[in-house]
Task: structure prediction
Amino acid sequence: MSVHQDAVAWLDERDGNHVTVSVHVDGGEYRAAVLQAEGVLEHWRGDDTETGHAWAGIAREDISEVYVVGGSLVLDVTDVAEATIGVGPEQNDLVLVLDEDVRLTIVERLS
Result:
């Protein structure tokens, strides 16, 4: 499997679970969080929100890797080329590299 396929598989395995999503920018001497959200991770096709209903009748493979967190945060991982799985202390996270110094981290909240 490719890194991209591994990331999508990680997300699919956690569909319906509670996650925290954050975007961090690494500025060398500092690391800043620019976005954080949490809620239930759902694949857009199974999402029972306005977003899910809007996309429900559209069967396009180029947008098949879209997820919703908490009913409002939309994650499109279609073009993710670099990712790391299980780097946190509980090995339950996915880190997507968005740019050289920008990372999106998804952590599964374990009960």
